[in-house]
Amino acid sequence: MGKIHELTNVLADQIAAGEVIERPASIVKELVENSLDADSKRIDIIVENSGLDSIRVIDDGSGIASDDVKIAFKRHATSKIATRRDLFKVKTMGFRGEALPSIASVADVTLTTATPESTSGSLIHIHGGELVDLKPGPARQGTDVVVRELFFNTPARLKYLKSPQTELARITDIVNRLALANPQVAFSLTHNNKELFRTAGNDNLQQVVAAIYGIQVGKKMLPFAGEDNDFQIDGLVSLPELTRASRQYITITINHRYIRNFELTKAIINGYESKLMVGRYPIAVLNIQLDPVLVDVNVHPAKREVRLSKEPELSALISKVIRQRISTENLIPDVDANQFIPDEPDVDNLEHQLSEAAKQYTTPSTAFHPQSSATVVKNGGPADADASDSVVREPIVIHKKDELASSQMQAFDQRYQDEGIAYPFGSPDEQAPQKPVKAENIELDVQDKSDQSKKRFPNLQYIGQLQGTFLLAQASDGLYIVDQHAAQERINYERFRKEIGQVSDDQQAFLVPLVLNYSTVDTMTITQHLDVLEAVGLHLESFGPNSFILRSHPTWFAEGQEEATTNEMIEWLINDGKISVHDFRQRTAIMMSCKRAIKANHHLDDREAKALLQRLPKCENPFNCPHGRPVTVHFNDRDLEKMFKRIQDSHVPFAQDFDEHEF
Predict the structure, then answer these.
(1) At what angle are helices 484-501 and 606-615 packed, to 10 degrees?
(2) What would the mean pLDDT of 529-539 be, rounded to a whole number?
(3) Which of 173, 131, 130 is nearest to 122 (CA)?
(4) For the segment 604-640, what is each residue's pLDDT rounded down to a tens digit?
(5) Residue 656 in this model has a pLDDT that exceeds 60
(6) How far is CA 271 from CA 104, 266, 488, in A?
(7) Among the residues of 346-421, which ranges form H helices?
(8) What is the pLDDT of residue 3?
(9) How many other C-beta atoms lie within 10 A of the C-beta of residue 612?
């Protein structure tokens, strides 16, 4: 008797589920992508216990016809492709017909759906791949899928799940990515009856970023767009001052499908050139529009990895567009003066209670008025001194609400109104209606520092040197502190990059030829890339089985560092195994600029310091050293005045904000 037999449909679906359904986040991804394919405008995701108890996805899409509900749970049943030709121009999120049967084979699934034209809907219940019920259901347009008892019949899978917090983080991450890829769709995510995330679905990508990462991050994102004959790209990138320690904050989508691609991620980072510090990565959202023929999404069961045609051309376009966008910005970081002002202790317990009460009853509009932190005085100058200001008065102590109407309080209010202190949020006529402001409707203006002055980089007037390391300078908009090492490193880098890019036949011969010995594997790598070395002026000659000889070096090598520079450049080639001439020249320029720059604790005379400040604005990028460190920081006039308390935070007129509450 033969040993080969055909697997049952349920077992085959469970095997397929092992590739498609790895964890609760996988179910959320597959169900939401089905909703997107149904042209949904609103998608609500509701999970219990990090998805282990239940996952529910509700949409308002086109729904499933009654005749198709049962067949939708059969393996490889799909409405999205029909022929082999369709497989190479997929325009939808899903196409294999594996998601629903895979989910149903390892969980308890209830699906309710209806199409716009139907008078009644359908309800189907499947438990562990077995049909339990199929009957008419509500006629609400769209689809409602509830998944319970995940992995109840494959308990071994449960052992490999992480903690509930980790699984919830995975779910949140995938919903965030889908929302960034589809800003035209309103998403919401609720966990254990607590809403975690919501977007407006108004096709405003910047507001989606603000909903995920916070309003302050949203304000520091720069929009960009570009195209060529094959690709259209657009999205948002953060200012170089806003970075993270990993690449996880970079989202790449192709035709609104979230993907992972190392080369495209590297292209985004390359667009910043040397404006990022080593080990720091930007926040970015990149959407690529292309003909589906140019991308193969049928590579990975979860469709996270794809194959791209003309990937080098696409990478070059991404780097170019981002580089051009960032090059227009003033990238000098402003210093937050508030971090230098210590919090003053409360005078007494009563004052503390009044302050806390004022915070509690502050209107919602308070959070959205930047001018609330400063006192505005008549004519933009200090208030006129009054002899009465020097009189010491007894404090007015308020114990209950009725005392706010006393003659003392009225006199107090009248005194400050006469002095011309403006309302901290504008006059009563200018104040916005006091009603809750929805976060998704907040207008976010991109922080464009290029509008703050006519010039991209200010004209700095030298003041002096601090501790042999920093140069103090002033401009019309405040104080600048310049890192002298970073400044000269940037100047040297741009000079060396130009010189190395113009490789000539000018060579300096070694007094004694340099012999380089390597292992067999390293020798093979070097031999394959001799043309790259020659392009930067290193002409190696074979000298035995695993040795090379170098008789001369480029004239731009620093005197006394010829051998070290040669060895370091060849080590780059060995470690990377593959390196372009452009990258090779860039690394070499960075190394040379660092070694030739002035160091800390090196005192400069006035002439040298002024010359450095005069050469800095002529650089293509005067804001960062080649390693990404800032060259200068800026204290504006307002920051300095706040630090020295020439401007003080105004007191909130909290009395008018109380309702019927007693102290």
Answers:
(1) 50
(2) 82
(3) 131
(4) 888 888 888 888 888 887 887 877 788 888 888 777 7
(5) no
(6) 45, 9, 23
(7) 349-360, 407-418
(8) 66
(9) 19
C-alpha–C-alpha distance, residues 30 and 55, integer Å: 12
Q: Is pLDDT at 86 greater than 90 in this prediction?
A: no
pLDDT at position 207 is: 93
| Neighbour-count burial for 515-535, b at 16+ CB within 10 Å, e otherwise | ebebeeebbebbeebbebbeb
Compute the average pLDDT of residues 532-541: 83
Query: Strands (DSSP E) along 239-319, which ranges?
Result: 243-244, 250-254, 257-259, 281-282, 284-290, 295-296, 307-308
pLDDT for residue 111 is more than 50: yes
The whole-angstrom separation of Cα 568 and Cα 503 is 19
- Give how far Cα 548 sits from Cα of 504, 541, 545, Å: 22, 5, 9
pLDDT at 392 over 50: no
* Matching residue, tokens 């600048």: 480
pLDDT recorded at residue 372: 36
**Average pLDDT for 434-456:** 47
Task: Kindly report the length of the chain.
Answer: 663
CB 495 within 8 A of CB 517: no
Distance (Å, rounded) from C-alpha 498 to C-alpha 494?
6
CA nearest to 483, candidates 472, 498, 494? 472
Quote the CA–CA distance of 524 and 517 in Å, as a whole number. 12
Instruction: Give CA–CA dist 120/512, Å, rounded.
Output: 91
Alpha carbon dihedral 74, 75, 77, 80, in 10-degree steps, equals: 140
Under DSSP, is residue 311 helix (H, G, I), strand (E, B) or coil? helix
A 10 A CB-CB count for 343 gives: 5
Residue type, 481: I
Backbone angles phi, psi at 482, to 5 degrees: -110, 130
Sequence-distant (6+) residues with CB within 8 A of 365 are 425, 431, 432, 434, 437
Q: Is the pLDDT of residue 450 over 60?
A: no
pLDDT at 648: 57
